[in-house]
Design goal:
By secondary structure, this protein is of the alpha/beta class. It folds into 3 domains: 95 residues, Four Helix Bundle (Hemerythrin (Met), subunit A) (Up-down Bundle); 138 residues, Rossmann fold (3-Layer(aba) Sandwich), CATH 3.40.50; 152 residues, Reverse transcriptase/Diguanylate cyclase domain (Alpha-Beta Plaits), CATH 3.30.70.270. It is built from 15 helices and 12 strands. It has a 5-stranded parallel beta sheet with strand order 2-1-3-4-5, sandwiched between helices. A 5-stranded mixed beta sheet has the order 7-8-6-11-12, sandwiched between helices. It is elongated. The N terminus is likely disordered. Bound molecules: 3'-deoxy-guanosine-5'-triphosphate and magnesium ion (2 copies). The site of 3'-deoxy-guanosine-5'-triphosphate has 16 residues, from β6, α12 and α13.
Length: 424
C-alpha cells in the first residue's frame, strides 16, 4: 500500500475529551450514595407496609446500582432479596435482611459522602449540533453515560422504552444508546419498534447492556444495532465507540449529499431529480393538484463548444444552472441537470399558465445572460417543453416526462429559443 501521509493525521490519535475512569468511578460512587443511601430503610419500610412489589423494585434497583460500582457482595445480597420477593411473595428471612444490612452499611461507610454528583459538574453541550438519546432505567447508568458524553454531544435521556420511543420521534437524535434489561418494554422491543417506524428507522442504535453473552450481542446486532457495549463499561471505550459511529455517520451523510449533486454545475443531478419527482408526484396525486415540468435543452450547443472550446462550454452550463436557481421563487420548485446540456425544472402546485410563465421568464433570462470569455461576451439560448398534469389513473411519471420531451422537440423543430406547451 502506498504511504499516504493524509492517513496519519491527528484524527488517528485519540485526544479524549473525557473524564478518566477514576473520575468516572468517583462520579458513580457519588451517584450511588445520593440515590441509594436510604435504600435499605426503604426496603424494610415497604415490607412493614406489606408492599412487597415495591420492596422487590427497590431490591432490584439496589442490585443494579451495586453492580455499576462493582460492589459484588452487596450486589449478591440484593439479588438474593430480589429473588425472594418475586411475584408478590415475601420469602426473605431475618437472616437475609441482616446480611443485606451488613453489606449495605459496609459500602455506604466506605463511600465518601462529600463526593456527591451535584458537585461534579456534568457538562451538557447544549450548543452542539450532534445529539444522542440515552436510554437506561437505572439512574446511575444514565448519569454515567451523560457524564462521559455530555461534553461533546447534546443529550436527551429516557428511563423507559415507551419514553424512549416518544423522544426518538420528537427529537430525531443522531444516535441512540439503548439498555436491554428494562421493565415493561425491553431494549429488543424498543429497537424493533424504532426500526419499524419511518420516522426513526434511520437512527443508528448502540446497545449498552449488562447482558454479556454472545447470544444477546448477536441478537442485538441482528435487530439492527450498529454496536454493542457491555456494562460495566470503561469511559474511554464508550466515548471512542460513540465517536467512531458518529464519524462514520457524517461520512455516509456526506457521500449521500455528493451522490445527489451534479459535479459541474453544483445543482441537483438526475438521481436526485428522480427521487424528488416521485415524492412530488405522489403528493400531487393525493391532493389532486397540478404539477408542471419544464424540459430544457441548450440550443446548438455543439456549435458553441466548437466555437469557444469545451471548457468554455462548461462555463456556460454553470452560468445556465445559476440563472435557473436564481429564477425559481418557491421552496418546492426544483431544478436539476438531466444530463449533457439538458436541464429540468419541476414546479409542484403550478398550473399550465404558471408553468408557461416561468418557462418564458427563464428563456428570456438565458437569452439576456452574458457569458464572458477572454474579454468578449458570449451568448446561448434554450428551448423549453412544458407539460402540466394533475396525476391520476390515466397518466404516469413516464407519460409526464415524455409529454414535456415532445413539447421540447416541437420547440426545436419550429425555430429554437422558444417555449412550447404539450397538448394531447
Ligand atoms: P440542438 O439545438 O438541436 O439541441 O443542438 P445541440 O448542438 O445542442 O445538440 P447536440 O445533441 O447535437 O449536441 C449537444 C452538445 O452538448 C454536444 C456535447 O458535446 C455538448 N455537451 C454535453 N454535455 C456537455 C458538457 O458537460 N460540457 C460541455 N462543454 N459540453 C457538453
Ligand atoms: Mg442542445
Ligand atoms: Mg441535447
Amino acid at each position: 500500500m502506498p504511504n499516504n501521509p493524509q492517513i496519519q493525521n491527528e484524527d488517528a490519535k485519540p485526544s479524549l475529551n473525557i473524564p478518566g475512569d477514576d473520575d468516572l468511578r468517583n462520579f458513580m460512587r457519588g451517584s450511588f450514595y445520593r440515590l441509594n443511601r436510604t435504600k435499605y430503610d426503604d426496603i424494610v419500610r415497604a415490607l412493614s407496609e406489606g408492599n412487597i412489589a415495591q420492596a422487590h423494585r427497590w431490591a432490584h434497583n439496589l442490585k443494579s446500582n451495586a453492580g455499576m460500582i462493582e460492589e459484588e457482595a452487596l450486589q449478591k445480597a440484593a439479588l438474593e432479596a430480589e429473588l425472594l420477593l418475586k411475584d408478590g411473595e415475601n420469602l426473605l428471612t431475618e437472616e437475609h435482611l441482616a446480611v443485606l444490612k451488613r453489606e449495605f452499611d459496609l459500602v455506604l461507610n466506605d463511600l465518601n459522602p462529600n463526593i456527591q454528583p451535584e458537585e461534579v459538574k456534568t457538562p451538557t453541550a447544549e450548543n452542539k449540533k450532534t445529539s444522542l438519546l440515552i436510554i437506561d432505567d437505572e439512574a446511575t447508568n444514565l448519569m454515567a453515560l451523560v457524564h462521559i458524553l455530555g461534553k461533546d454531544y447534546k443529550i436527551y435521556s429516557a428511563q423507559s422504552g415507551q419514553e424512549a420511543i416518544k423522544k426518538a420521534e420528537e427529537f430525531s437524535p443522531d444516535m441512540i444508546l439503548l439498555d436491554i434489561l428494562m421493565p415493561v418494554m425491553d431494549g429488543y422491543e424498543v429497537i424493533a419498534h424504532l426500526k419499524s417506524s419511518e420516522k426513526t428507522k434511520h437512527i443508528p442504535v448502540i446497545f449498552v447492556s449488562g447482558l454479556d453473552s454472545v447470544e444477546s450481542e448477536e441478537k442485538g446486532l441482528q435487530l439492527g444495532a450498529v454496536d454493542y457495549i457491555i456494562k460495566p463499561f470503561r469511559a474511554a471505550i464508550v466515548k471512542l465507540r460513540v465517536d467512531n459511529q458518529i464519524k462514520m455517520l457524517e461520512q455516509i451523510k456526506m457521500i449521500e449529499r455528493l451522490s445527489m449533486i451534479d459535479q459541474l454545475t453544483n445543482i441537483a443531478n438526475r438521481r436526485s431529480f428522480d427521487n424528488r419527482l416521485s415524492v412530488e408526484w405522489n403528493n400531487a396525486a393525493r391532493q389532486a393538484t397540478p404539477v408542471s415540468l419544464l424540459m430544457i435543452d441548450v440550443d446548438l450547443f455543439k456549435n458553441y463548444n466548437d466555437k469557444w472550446g469545451h471548457q468554455q462550454g462548461d462555463v456556460a452550463l454553470k452560468k445556465i444552472a445559476e440563472v435557473f436557481t436564481k429564477s425559481l421563487k418557491r421552496k418546492s420548485d426544483f431544478t436539476a441537470r438531466w444530463g449533457g446540456e439538458e436541464f429540468v425544472v419541476l414546479l409542484p402546485g403550478t398550473d399550465a399558465k404558471g408553468g408557461l410563465n416561468i418557462a418564458e421568464c427563464i428563456r428570456k433570462k438565458i437569452e439576456a445572460a452574458e457569458i464572458p470569455y477572454k474579454g468578449k461576451i458570449t451568448k446561448v439560448t434554450i428551448s423549453v417543453g412544458v407539460n402540466t398534469v394533475v396525476p391520476n389513473r390515466n397518466n404516469s411519471i413516464d407519460t409526464f416526462i415524455s409529454g414535456a420531451d415532445t413539447a421540447l422537440y416541437r420547440a426545436k423543430e419550429t425555430g429554437r429559443n422558444k417555449v412550447c406547451v404539450y397538448e394531447n
